[in-house]
Amino acid sequence: MKQGAQDSAGTRTPGAGRGAVPRVPRQPQAADPRREQEAGEPRRDQEFPAVADLPRAGVRGEHTHGEPPVLHPRPLVRRSSVRGQILQALRTALVAGELKPGEVYSAPALGERFGVSATPVREAMQQLTLEGAVEVVPNRGFRVIERGDRELAELAEVRALLEVPVMLRLARRVPVERWDELRPLAEATVRAASSGCRATYAEADRAFHRAVLSLSGNDQLVQIAEDLHRRAQWPLVGGSARPARADLVADAAEHTALLDALVARDVDVVRALVAEHFAGAD
Prior knowledge:
mainly alpha; 5 strands
C-alpha cells in the first residue's frame, strides 16, 4: 500500500505517490454577471439605473398591485417644460401689451387662461420678477412694472455702449461670407415687421442682434445684451401696444442696411447706422 506524499507544509496528500502529479488547489471562479442577473441579483452597474432604464409609472386604469414603488422623474421634467412654455407665453403677452403696465395679475387667473395650474405660472412670474418685468404684490399676485421714456432712453444708451464698439470691431475682422450667412435673419425681421405684430417682430429683432453679437465669441456679452434688449421691448405705461407697422418696417430696414455696410466693411456707415438704430429703439 502506497503512502501519501508529504507536501511542502509537512502534511500528506492522500493518494499521491512517487511520480504522481500534485493536486492543485481549486481556485474560486469569478462570478458570472449573467448568472447573477438570472438569479435575480442586481448587477453593479444596475444599482443606479439611468433615467431611461427606470420603469414607467402606471397610468390611470393600469393595475399596479404588488409592484414596487417607482422613482419617476418625468413629472419634474414636464413641470419644467410647462414652466418654460408659460414663461414664453407671458413674455409674448407682455411685449404685445396684453399684460398692462400697473395691472395686477394673479397666478390662478393666468393659469386658468393658459389651461394649467397656478404653480408653473407662479414659477414663471418669479423669473419675470428677476428680470424686472413684474413685482410681487403680497396676497394678490404680480404687478406689471410701469416704465417711462427715461428708462427706455437709459436702456438704449447702455445697449449702445455695449454693442456699438463690438459691431465696429467685427466690421473689421469678420469675413464677408459670415455676414452673408446672417442675411436670412435680417430678411426675417422685415417679414415680421410687415405683419404688424409687435411680439413677432420683437422675437425676430432679438434673433438678428443675437446672431451678430455671437460672432464676437463672448457669451457673457451676448447674454447681457439679450437681457437689455428684451427689457427695451416692454411697452411703456400709456403707450400703444401695437405701434404703426410703418415704424416696425423702418426699424427692420435698418437691419438690412447694417448688414450691407458690414459686408462692404464700411465702418463709417456701420457707426452711423448703429447709432441711429439705438437712438430710435422702442
